[in-house]
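Key result, reporting period 2: structure in, sequence out.
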């Protein structure tokens, strides 16, 4: 099991490193056949005569964080003149700055802060080869996580299915969106340097994937507020109230959730990704994973037992990824 965990962790780090290095140069590595399907130029010659696929080819594309054409080609576009939206100013703010804050129900947020269970560490019990995510082994004790309850998932589904959020996602992505993952995150106060999401980083998300953080508590300077750097490398700090939803482009912006110094920060971490025009709004729950490698062919990974994520466990068989 130790060897399996080490290999899995090494693969995740290698993929993340390659994505970030290419993103810094303005490119992204994709499978050629996927790119062909997105652009409508799929070449049947890439398949052999007996119906089997030839070895996969990779190609470099410019790393513009826009939704794939397959999602946007037939999707109704947001027009503030034809479809007035209460979030029109938030769409403009996101387009200009890559980040915006949207107020939601503070009473609901406070309720979930008290009723949800932050009962896990940051070990990835859902690690799978076709999902980007954290390492199997936990990397810090300063963060607690948890799986959302059915009540929370239902609330988020109703929230993001509403007309205002539908128009918001059409405005910032050009198409509807779904939730690729939702997880609870609690950051405990500490005076040491931040690690993981508390370090400065960019995510290297696939095209069209953006991130969200729904605050379950008030966030001030002592609670570890969100910080980002703009195109001129100036640092900005975003404070928030209970129920505020921070939406940001994690590929465009260097960012971090700064380490809380004196107060605990409780939040819901969200990943938004494009969906097809005829696809229903769905919410996936995949633990410490972030997004699927191929957003059009998604297979949800199964959760493994907590002790199966222990990299020093001995005498146990390797857990199935699915």
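The corresponding designed sequence is given below.
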């Amino acid at each position: 099991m130790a060897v399996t965990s080490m290999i899995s962790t090494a693969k995740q780090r290698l993929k993340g490193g390659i994505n970030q290095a290419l993103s810094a140069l303005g490119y992204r590595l994709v499978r050629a056949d996927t790119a062909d399907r997105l652009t409508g130029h799929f070449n049947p010659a890439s398949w052999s005569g007996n119906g089997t696929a030839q070895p996969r080819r990779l190609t470099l594309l410019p790393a513009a964080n826009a939704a794939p054409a397959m999602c946007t080609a037939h999707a109704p576009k947001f027009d503030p003149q034809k479809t007035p939206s209460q979030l029109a100013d938030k769409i403009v703010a996101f387009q200009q700055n890559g980040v915006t804050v949207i107020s939601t129900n503070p009473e609901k947020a406070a309720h979930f802060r008290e009723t949800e269970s932050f009962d896990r560490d940051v070990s990835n019990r859902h690690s799978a080869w076709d999902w980007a995510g954290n390492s199997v082994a936990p990397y810090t004790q300063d963060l607690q996580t948890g799986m959302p309850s059915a009540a929370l998932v239902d609330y988020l589904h109703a929230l993001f299915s509403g007309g205002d959020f539908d128009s918001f996602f059409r405005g910032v992505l050009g198409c509807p969106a779904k939730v690729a993952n939702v997880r609870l995150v609690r950051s405990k106060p500490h005076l040491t340097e931040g690690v993981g999401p508390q370090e400065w980083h960019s995510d290297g998300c696939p095209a069209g994937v953006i991130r969200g953080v729904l605050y379950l508590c008030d966030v001030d300077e002592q609670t570890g507020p969100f910080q980002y750097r703009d195109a001129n490398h100036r640092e900005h700090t975003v404070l928030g109230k209970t129920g505020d939803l921070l939406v940001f482009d994690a590929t465009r912006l260097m960012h971090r959730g700064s380490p809380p110094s004196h107060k605990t920060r409780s939040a819901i971490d969200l990943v938004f990704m494009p969906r097809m025009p005829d696809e229903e709004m769905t919410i996936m729950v995949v633990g410490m994973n972030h997004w699927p490698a191929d957003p059009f062919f998604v297979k949800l990974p199964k959760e493994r037992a907590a002790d199966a994520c222990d990299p020093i466990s001995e005498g146990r068989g390797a857990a199935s990824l699915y």
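Helices lie at 2-24, 32-39, 69-72, 88-97, 106-115, 150-161, 163-173. Residues 37-42, 311-322 have pLDDT under 50 and may be disordered. This case is discussed further under Risks and Mitigation.
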